[in-house]
Amino acid sequence: MKKILLLPFLCIVALVTAQKFHDLPKISQADFNGDQPSLNPDAPAEILFRSARHIVMTNTGYDYRMESTYITRIRVYNKEKVNDLLNPEIPIYETSGDRQKLTGFSAVTYNLENGKIVTTKVEGDSKYRSKEDKNYVITKFAFPNVKDGSIVEYKYTVYSPERYLWMTPQFMVERELPQRYVEYFLDTPRSLGYNINYKGILVPSIRETAAKDLYGTQYQVYRFAYENVPAYKEEKYVLNNNNYMTSIKAELNSYNIGSEYKSFSMNWNDIRKRLNEDEEFGLQLKKQNLVKNILPEDIKKISNPKERAAAILKFVQRNYTWNKEVSLWTGEGIRNLLNTKIGNSAEINLLLVMLMRDAGLDANPIVGSTVSRGIITGYSPTITQLNYVFASVLMDDVFYYYDGTSKYGKTYELPRRALNETGVLLTDKEAKVVNVYYPGTSKTFLTVDAKLNPDATFSGNFSDHDTKLYAAFNNEEYNNNKEEYQKIYYRDRYKFPITELKTQTLENGDIETGFDFHSDSFVDVIGTKLVFNPLLFLYTKNHDFDQTETRKAPLQFYSASEKVKKVTITLPDGYVFENLPKGKKIKTEDGTIAYSYIPTQEGNTLTVESVLLIGGESFPAEYYQAFKQIFDNITQMEGQVVTAVRK
């Protein structure tokens, strides 16, 4: 077996040593050949060259800095579909202390006109800086004179002082566009040690990790290049596709300067200790005197711990407002939150921990990463992976989760942004990786009560009722802007006239939207017969499980779910049903996916009820075919029509 494996390995080594890294080639007329990408003919653009080169420089006295040079060159084939590429943004981290510096910026558009390459530069007054938040300034610009067939190119260098050497930004090797050549470099003095965190399945066509004499001293180089990389096709029902794309990020793990050696390699317990000693995290939690007289006594006196914890959560939800800033750190601090009643996510949820401790509960923080940030990886624990914190309480040997940023969350019911597979529980004695998921089943009830009129129109009323996670999310959206919520709700779902559109939050936290309708768009008149689908506007002709390529990522849904459609149709006097739809029940062998379609007739009234159960929040990629088959059946069953005729 070893001999069999050795041969292809030697072939790969030979391939790597035979190929060379590329510098940015000069633009030539050959770059304008063809009217579609060579790798993915349907792509609206193709990346010809993309590079991220990080060089850690040092002066006498070990004064380090990092120079990061980025180059991107793109051939545009369909301008209308790549607007985001034609308006790039360059983020620069700026605080009151050491700042990054943007330099060497240039951006040009190339066009082939009358056999000559015409260059149009982005002028200085065409780019501008925008302060997005207290930490980041974004440089924005737009390419001029872009046409189908143009080539656009921009490059810049970011100088980062020593405090930024902890890691390089995550470099996404794969992109939504095909790429002819893409590379990542890190050159660092051998006195600094870095972990190269590599994620994904893409194998570099050129790779070099070696010690070299560079820039007047000994360096360790990490260089990876890829040629002819196809576009990454995002898959549906994935919380964050970036988790499954090939990427590279370097993180500092040690330094060896003179006779001094220090290792930064950490486990989660090391991170727990650092967080507990940080002024914007652990030291805030130690200021219990700040919350000593905050909770009403009637809450503290609740004997049942679960009810007491639930009451404290409601107290925080009622009295403090999240400012929409996601953070692991408190920033302005707990004292400021108590004074202003407004704070970031860390301030809100660390206050929640403190209040629960004040009420005698065994409460601790759980740190993690938001869904948009990406899952945390256990093989190389770092603080930089973390950007979120919420509360947990241990009761009867079970950890219950709480989040005060959402006005509508309940015990154990975290908002969608926090449902990112795992988190790290921090106690006084240990750090423990825990599963982070949504408990129970979130349900949607779609109910129609309709009457068929003799003039082949339908009139009736409709209600859309959501529970648990769906209710919490929609309640936040609705109460943030009620008019806009209803406008989008109707516009994105229905194409017929409605009246009396109404949304309300129910006492139990559920949300319900309803309306009345009268429409002639649901019935086909064939002679004296009225033909229609008994699900009316709840019938969907197609489903989203239409992927033809092999599934790569798991299927993710935030929460287990149940969707119930129930339509009751009453015929006018003098009409009867000539035919009825057939019922069916299907489910997977393990019962985690189940569907039923049940028609019931009573006189001139027909009720059709369909129920879809997805009994989990995550499924391995191998389940994709089971989902596809079930949804094929759903489309077929719900496509049945009925006929009403006059007696």
Runs with pLDDT <50, length 5+?
Answer: 1-18
Beta-strand content estimate: 35-45%
Individual helix count: 10
Spatial shape: globular
- Give the termini separation: 79 Å
Radius of gyration over alpha carbons? 30 Å
Number of strands: 36
The profile of the biggest β sheet is: 8 strands, mixed
Name the strands of the widest sheet in spatial order: 5-4-8-2-1-10-13-12
Helix content range of the residues, please? 10-25%
Rounded mean pLDDT score: 91
Query: Structural class given helices, strands, pairing?
Result: alpha+beta
Summarize the structure.
By secondary structure, this protein is an alpha+beta fold. The protein has ten helices and 36 strands.
Task: Spell out the key features of this protein.
eight-stranded mixed sheet; 10 helices; globular; disordered N terminus; 647 residues; alpha+beta
Would you mind describing this structure in some detail?
With 647 residues, the protein is an alpha+beta fold. 17% of the residues lie in helices and 40% in strands. It contains ten helices and 36 strands. Strand 27 and strand 28 form a beta hairpin.
What's the layout of helices and strands?
Layout: H1 2-18, E1 45-59, E2 63-76, E3 89-93, E4 101-113, E5 116-121, E6 128-131, E7 136-140, E8 151-161, E9 171-172, E10 179-189, E11 192-199, E12 206-214, E13 217-229, E14 247-257, E15 260-263, H2 268-276, H3 282-285, H4 297-300, H5 305-319, E16 321-322, H6 334-340, E17 342-343, H7 345-358, E18 363-368, E19 388-395, E20 398-402, E21 421-426, E22 431-436, E23 441-452, E24 458-466, H8 468-480, H9 482-491, E25 498-505, E26 511-519, E27 523-526, E28 529-532, E29 555-556, E30 560-570, E31 575-579, E32 584-587, E33 593-602, E34 605-614, E35 618-619, H10 624-638, E36 642-646
Parallel strand pairs: 1-10, 16-17, 23-30
Antiparallel strand pairs: 1-2, 2-8, 3-7, 4-5, 4-8, 6-7, 9-14, 10-13, 11-14, 12-13, 14-15, 18-19, 18-21, 19-20, 21-22, 23-24, 24-26, 25-26, 27-28, 28-36, 29-35, 30-34, 31-36, 32-33, 33-34
Helix pairs in contact: 5-7, 8-9
